[in-house]
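Record type: monomer structure entry
Structure origin: computed from sequence
Chain ID: A
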Amino acid sequence: MTMKNICLYLSLVSLFIGSSQSIKVPVDTLVTTTHSTTIKGMNFSYTAETGMQPVWDKDGIPIASLFYTYYTRNNIKNRAERPLIISFNGGPGSASVWMHIAYTGPRILNVDSEGYPVQPYGFKKNPNSVLDEADIVFVNPVNTAYSRMLTDIEGELPKPEQFFGINEDIKYLAAWINTFVSRKNRWESPKYIIGESYGGTRVMGLSLELQQNQWMYLNGVILVSPADYKVLRVGGPVSSALNLPYFTAAAWYHNQLPEILQSKDLSEILPESEDFTINTLLPALAKGGFISDSEKIRVSKKMAYYSGLSQKVILQHNLDVPNSFFWKELLRDETGQTIGRLDSRYLGIDKKESGDRPDYSAELTSWLHSFTPAINHYIKSELEFKTDLKYNMFGSVQPWNNEGDNTRDDLRLAMAQNPYLQVLNQSGYYDGATTYFNSK
């Protein structure tokens, strides 16, 4: 091959590589900006660090890079005494956008007094952020937000099963947290991890993984609408029965309960529904085919009383009413609308009133068309982080390995071994996916 041909060949290869890798994944970057806010009447400034931090394999080679945003309050005399919160959303496969600009971050989506997104979509200062009391980092697992796997020197991506599974997810995130805490010099700080939905499973497992394999002892685990997959996936009497108090809450919100209940505050009627669930409905469902007709009728009548559904449809479901049917059925005869899955205050419109489940999740479509422009604009304009990568609200993480889920017992063991580890559980009454009584 002549020198001219070699040069032409190298030029073509360079052109090909440039076009096939035109969007580069940042491996280890950081952008720092300064802002101000007001929380609980206090005005103060804070620093936002937005960037990518690698995940290393056992040989110290970067195999992925995670996108994060880290907020620290300025003018703190002793940073070591200030708590650090490490925040995750769930999915699996969800970015941390929901916790970031809808709950604990210093900026929040534009919403009305009921929490519904309003136009023009955007963000504003969050008067309820935790930044007055603690620093916080929002972490995005692989394939969420801008987080991605990295190619090796031969251009090959790592095997996805290194990341996409209950225990795999926990292990690489624990190692990433160790690196982050070391880089930010936060080993002395009280440390808390917070997880929403599947993030609850994640942080339960992280509590023990951090303790046993990273020698990092936490001060707290915060579970936000945690998903208990051992109950959700298995089904059966327990899984079914524990949904009734959620039915009560959603029916109360939509004025579908009997007047004697509807006239009361929600906090007054939920204990009644919970008591019936534990002491009557659960034993009845556990009897299966051994339940008598008279008991089934008696239980179904009380279920109708606490759910807003008719006794007829409850009997048609043999006392075992799926949540998806409830979302479709509750308002079927009144407005024909469906109610939301993750937040049952939202209303949907299906093509047909018939059917046993909604066509779509009314709340999720509302959130996606409001959160997506807000988070993209916020990151690029206020946080000044620039990349051509697409921000994945939900990323591809399937197939997900669900084997070996011991996360509940992991948390129990972590608490037993660490007397300073405390747990806070938070749930929404109108959440029909990870229901509050299941968590309770």
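Annotation 1: The two ends are 73 Å apart (CA to CA).
Annotation 2: The first strand starts at residue 29 and ends at 39.
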